[in-house]
């Protein structure tokens, strides 16, 4: 039902079905949480529920305000700010990300993976439909720059694996929103690659029961895949996420506005800062085994198959996006 609600919201052609699908996706996310988490972290659950209700009522109110503004040919800047802030609250973006941190720290593995990936898609598409009615996006661009810089700085000072991934998710949401300015296929391709890389990394992490940076010493056959997925999340060349980010930047740089150039600068700075976080995990998980990995003649064939699967999936998603652009 959760996936059905997400698909219903994404495929809706008007405001009301999109809003209903968005709310149902949040409602059906709660049963995905395991009972032990809901009993031990009641305050986090209630905080998430309260903010979801508040943001839902705010979005509903903003829809009525938008209808009123259109009828009287009034400015929609206030409606834009209201809608964006309520959607930011629902997605756990700054400054409404405290509930996101609390819930993410205590969720079970499966629910955490859903929260980092699929949970945000309906809100992002709803926001894209909002963009289609606007001509002045300087306010949104300014918030994107703040999100990127804040997420990268907070990620550097984070020593918890989950906190680092949460801030990484915030940074990738900003990239996703930038891609939504130009093409739905570009957004789907970017988010598909992010989803694939995140899931591969997280499943390997849970497989080895890793909790902290210093504990991420893996066996030879898992180390390469973990490093590859982290490098892809970091946007390192020649992996697929690097080319997607370059494509987004190339679209942004086609504009001559100063705000667009500032957004590009913020994107590059934040990605460079976040690269330090990704590389710290990468080196801690592979440096101990690097010699034996490259000189071991009995490397498992499944490692090669997994590597080909990750790269092929990313390249196919890029090809699909480029075909429909």
Automatic annotation (TrEMBL):
UniProt KW keywords: Electron transport, Membrane, Mitochondrion, Mitochondrion inner membrane, NAD, Respiratory chain, Translocase, Transmembrane, Transmembrane helix, Transport, Ubiquinone
Name listed for the protein in its UniProt record: NADH-ubiquinone oxidoreductase chain 2
Protein family membership: Belongs to the complex I subunit 2 family.
Membrane topology of this protein: Multi-pass membrane protein
Reactions accelerated catalytically: a ubiquinone + NADH + 5 H(+)(in) = a ubiquinol + NAD(+) + 4 H(+)(out)
NADH:quinone oxidoreductase/Mrp antiporter transmembrane domain sequence ranges: 12-268
Classification via Pfam families: Proton_antipo_M
Parts of the chain that traverse the membrane: 15-33, 45-66, 72-89, 110-131, 137-159, 180-204, 224-246, 258-283, 303-324
Single GO molecular function: NADH dehydrogenase (ubiquinone) activity
Entry's EC annotation: 7.1.1.2
Enzyme class per UniProt: translocase
An individual GO BP term: mitochondrial electron transport, NADH to ubiquinone
Role according to the record: Core subunit of the mitochondrial membrane respiratory chain NADH dehydrogenase (Complex I) that is believed to belong to the minimal assembly required for catalysis. Complex I functions in the transfer of electrons from NADH to the respiratory chain. The immediate electron acceptor for the enzyme is believed to be ubiquinone.
Compartments reported by the entry: Mitochondrion inner membrane
Entry GO CC: mitochondrial inner membrane
Keyword Electron transport: yes
